[in-house]
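Posting for a labmate who doesn't have an account.
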Amino acid sequence: MNNPKAWYKILGSIYRCCGMIVRKENCFQNILTGRALHYAIPKVIVLFIQLCIPSVVFGEPLENHSKQMPQAQASEAISLPVQEGQNQGLSKYFTMSLEDLAKVQIIGSTLTEQALKTVPSAVTVFTHEQIKRMGLDSLDELMNLVPGFQSYRSSQTSMSFAFSSRGRRIGNPVSEIMILVDNQLVNEPRTSGSALFVTNCPLMHIERIEFIRGPGAAVYGSNAMMGVVNIVTRTDVNELSVGYGSFNRRQAYLLASQQIGDVKMDLFGRIDADDGDDYLVQDTFGPDRIYTDDPRKRANLNAKIRWHDTYLNLQYNQLEAENFYEQSGISNGFNQRSVELGSISLQQDFNWLSVSSSVWISYFLSNANSTAQFAAPGVLAGISNPASNDALFVDVDFTDYSETRFKWHNDWHINDQSSLQFGIELRHIDVPETIVKNNFDLGDLANRNFPIRYYGSLLATTAVQAESNRDIVGLYSQYQRLLFEKTSLILGLRYDKFSSIGSQLSPRLGLVQELSDHHSLKLLYGEAFRAPSENELNLTNTPDFLGNPDLKPEIVKTWELIWMGQWSHTNISLGYFENHFKDSIAQTATGTGALQYNNVYQDPAKGLEFELSHELNEHWLLRATYTYISDKPELSFREAEQLTSLMVNFQQGKWNANLIATWCDEREMLTGGSGTSRISLNDYWQLFGKVNYNFNHNWRGFVQVKNMSDEDYLTPASSSKLTEGIPNRGREIMVGVIWHF
């Protein structure tokens, strides 16, 4: 991979593919052919010129980095030992010890490097060295190994996985937890929640992931209400993999890295498709049980380019799903969901006086299409004009939803005992009007305007979300000080101003005491908020969910007490938390069968989180987690009170075997079209296994099995229309090879 001309061709294909983020074309074939070059390159060039100006103004590019580095720089430094191992032919493939893992630095909590033992947050971290041993593929599966977190399939679409931290979630997509990928916020502008592809994020692309529980608004603002997931992707890797498995699953991915002069380039691409599992479920539009399946396709493309202290990041993701549940209804042959998400970001690092600074500017664009059936044949015959026995079908395009962001972050290393971080963030969200194509007028049905107009074909007549935009200004400051040799203090405050909503202050206080070389104690307090999203404010003319323009931001106040113990072969963490909510945003029944967003009272949430890792010897590693939400709010009925995970890892020479078991307590879901009637879903176990064999320095093979016991388990639906839980896939086996070149 030392031919520059080959790399120029690769970059040309990347630019052409990224141009498709503003088009509605299917890219699974276009990713290989490369089209729409004209759109992406002009934006890249203009932004690149604009953000290179600080290098000219403030002097030469940085050669030495301060002790407390911006996140992108620090992530590279932290991952160097792993990358060196890869470049040396994987001779130390299974040698990362528990003691090494304890030394991994945490960035996402404070935007500075912090040891796991002293970082002022409840944090669980995984590295690529750990992840590659597990029989897991995507972020939603990994979440169930984190204390406090839980993730499960919902009824929005077959690829939609709801997730929560500490039992707090009101809707899907999730908007209480902020997701960051390589410094960039990844969310859906329309809902301000996590984009659909986030839970499908491929784990093979992750170098390090930090699950930070508790309020993060003092640093990140709205949406970091219940936690932050900070993902750093892999660099300096040349790797190609293919795999085949159950349900005719085909997967291939490429990681490639190249240095050409002063320019460093990293590329990741993946295609993953299968024919889906088969399910026998209750017909949502009739009395019988019917068969359905859940075929899906996923594609990811990411390019990172670095020149001195300038970073360019391009991302494109596409997902497609058919049949199964769509908007909580089943209509084989018609149900479909497709999503396109693209982003471009530029980062410039520089020094001024004694301050290390980073400037980011980014643009995020999403397009989605959903086709679904909303009513059975004949149901609307007596109330339609002209009368028709047709079923009610809808086709909705959520197109050109965009968000533009600017951030200037500063790190002032005052002296050996104290530092100050401060910055400004500007965001602009643009949400166009969304109009549904329908054969019966959906607005007439939602508003009970009888008779309902029947059009005979799918016509774009009904607006389901009003056009809107939002400007956000955030100012933040954070002071860290070593009070005594073993005592550290953190104080933080952020001010956010939202157009048409108001302003909010988010404070933070943390005290960390190292009791000895092996024990530390953390006392933490924080406040966070979440502003209502555009769809929560402006959703209208739908029979299931209604917006509320009078919503206020919801607020949480959190106390945490955490004890950590670290020894050479054992790590233990035990934490207690209390969450007190104000003006919680929740879905409440309207009396017409629809749910509407309202500010309501919510009970406090209290609980315990436990995490243990123990290295028996050089061959055996044990890991266990347990979560107990002792006081679970009534609004969190879909979330489980107790969660457990167990992992056993064995390595010997070129072999590594990994077994994971997760247990989830009972959950509840709404049913019968009511906001009050519920049914309980049984608890369940899941087993995951993976065996890796390192043939030589360049080739590795693996066999992985998900849901090994072929457990038939159900998870909560997102609406109240269903009479049973959502089925999940049975046993999945995959065999694959990985080539390091």
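Reply:
Got it, the structure tokens are right above this. Residues 37-58 form the longest helix (22 residues).
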